[in-house]
């Protein structure tokens, strides 16, 4: 990566950064039929089965959205109102100063999810899930959170819908990011560290391993167990990894398509090396971005590379095995076929909690297995250096998860100089880093965690 030289903004940059006037999509896009092969069947042999548990804890409308019957799923008007209220559509920002700094021919676009009120794209699904939970008479939303971005979104969505929320946050992230807890509590949420002494799963784990740092696997187990204990008034919500969340997030790719069209910037031009890039934890910002493009890749009308940036602390897509496994540790979710570090893998407590999953979702893994998705594992320091470069050039500070995608994009953009074409690179800028400054400071100054 080149050293920073205080690039000046090119003259027309300000003009190109004006939000592009596209409307909110009227539908979500069901990309499951566009996958290169059907999703492999899940294994679900527990007693009770994960499907039976899901029927108890998940809103029915969301389970139906896991298998939509239509390609274009209409967004109810009340949900569209909510989505406009939280600031959708979000801007597509041409990062011209970054391009100038890198000296690249590539056109780099950032889809700016950091501008949403909770600072991340997670709110796109949280408001929808809260809406359906309220419609079905549930009064308490229960969930897990890694970095706290999903938890903040659920806490806000619950408050907007007049519901309570209870959130299990991975213990090491709670220690690293106390401000996310303050935000959730300000909204009235109950926040607990995971593993939690308040659930039977958490108590057992803490007895065996008292200093356990927690992981998404422990937090999912705590949250589902707690939702079961609360009974029918509770709804358990997922922030990623399941098809209905991906469906809600297809707004990302649909808006990008409309915005690039409004800019007269074609994407997927054959032979040019155009890219869609997103970080990948549970896969929701990645699938939301690429899902609406899969049809045009399948029929050959676009030539587009899809790139997932994962954390080198949990390198499932680049170093994991394709095998059956669960996203939780207590056996409350089905086993899905995906790239995995194995059930006993506890990712080191990096600052990028949203990418600390031990098992990849079925959809992301299928794309990878069928050769449609490239992947790169990015080391935390390199990611945050890319984040610092984007702050210094574009004036935008992104979340540690996002910076993994930024580092991948910088590499692609620098490589583009060796070719004759000017590729278009769209990066899903999944969240703001304003509450992650401690992580930037700690990692970039080499201090203690
Ligand atoms: C800002 C941000 N980006 C990305 C992710 C990764 O999630 P997913 O892979 O589901 O998009 C997270 C997860 O917490 C996040 O907080």
UniProtKB/TrEMBL annotation:
It comes from the Bacteria. Residues 86-431 form the Tryptophan synthase beta chain-like PALP domain. Keywords: Amino-acid biosynthesis, Aromatic amino acid biosynthesis, Lyase, Pyridoxal phosphate, Tryptophan biosynthesis. Its EC number is 4.2.1.20. It is an enzyme of class 4 (lyase). The keyword Lyase applies. Tetramer of two alpha and two beta chains. Belongs to the TrpB family. NCBIfam families: PRK12391.1 (NF009057). This is tryptophan synthase. The gene is c10A.
